[in-house]
Design goal:
Number of domains: 2
Largest sheet: 5 strands, antiparallel
Oligomer: single chain
Structural class: alpha+beta
CATH class of the largest domain: Alpha Beta
Number of helices: 11
Strand order of the largest sheet: 2-1-5-4-3
Shape: elongated
CATH superfamily of the largest domain: PAS domain
CATH architecture of the largest domain: 2-Layer Sandwich
Distance between the termini: 63 Å
Order of helices and strands: HHHEEHHHEEEHHHEHEEHE
Strand content: 15-25%
């Protein structure tokens, strides 16, 4: 607690500081740096409507009245000592403490509103993170309307893409779609239903067009893994040089044309669900 208090006392007051003017004073690096940091904090506190400071355990040790009131605390003192998440539900201050890295610009959702926030770690003379300070902009957010609009649009697109991907990885067929009532078809369905709850692999044999894919989807839909992904992979269409990357993934730049950010393999994508290896008899 003492290192946190020292840091807070140095940067919070920001008053009575001596502005360097002479060449000698400007050459005093430590003095200029301290003055600049105090001035920066004062400006940030003036520009942003909300300011909160936490200690190394992510407990609030200072919060301004306006920010506290926004989260239902009429008296800022009542928020002191509480874990920051108890006061600011979606706070990422604990992550700043964990990494020791700043979050210079972020958008935090609070109910129906969005706040533009900046989070900075506070460190002692040895470089150890002893706390963090966060600034929030809410009433003046109109000045950042283009940024907020872009963030909102990207968030909506990401949600839509995830939903679309989830839909694509769900079973499209059930046993009702496997048409036929002959003794052979009935036996196939019976065995498939017996296999559905099992954890082992299931080998489906049959000519092209006989419904192996429909049966694979039906087995997944009837299994305890139905809520997890069903990932399909056409083994006959994959060159042998890319087979390993398709199954196990690849790091960035692992081969010519590889994704710059790397890619997950089908085994990882199907984790907890079902991996359907189509045309496995024709794999390279």
């Amino acid at each position: 607690m003492r290192p946190s208090c020292v840091v807070i006392c140095r940067i919070h007051l920001g008053q009575g500081q001596t502005v360097p003017h002479s060449a000698t004073e400007l050459a005093d690096y430590d003095h200029v740096r301290q003055w600049a940091m105090q001035s920066l904090f004062q400006h940030m506190d003036d520009i942003y409507q909300g300011t909160v400071i936490v200690d190394a355990q992510a407990r609030i040790i200072w919060i301004n009245a306006r920010y506290a009131e926004r989260f239902g605390f009429a008296d800022p003192q009542s928020a002191l000592g509480q874990p920051v998440e108890n006061v600011i539900p979606n706070s990422q201050m604990r992550e700043v403490l964990r990494t020791g890295e700043p979050m210079l610009l972020d958008i935090m959702a609070t109910g129906d509103d969005q706040l533009v926030v900046t989070r900075l770690p506070l460190k002692d003379a040895t470089g150890r993170t002893v706390g963090a300070v966060g600034f929030a902009l809410f009433d003046k957010i109109q000045s950042l309307a283009p940024l907020v609009a872009k963030f909102t649009r990207l968030a909506e697109e990401l949600a839509a893409t995830r939903e679309s991907l989830a839909q694509a990885r769900r079973a499209k067929y059930s046993f009702e779609h496997f048409v036929g009532d002959s003794p052979l078809i009935s036996e196939v369905k019976r065995q498939a239903r017996l296999a559905a709850p099992l954890e082992g692999a299931v080998l489906l044999l049959g000519e092209t067009g006989t419904g192996k894919e429909v049966l694979a989807h039906a087995i997944h839909a009837a299994s305890p893994r139905a809520g997890k992904p069903l990932v399909s992979l056409n083994m006959a269409a994959i060159p042998d040089t890319l087979l390993e990357a398709e199954l196990f993934g690849a790091s960035a730049g692992a081969y010519t044309g590889a994704d710059k950010k790397g890619r997950s393999g089908k085994l990882q994508l199907a984790d907890g669900g079902t991996l359907f290896l189509d045309e496995i008899g024709d794999m390279p």
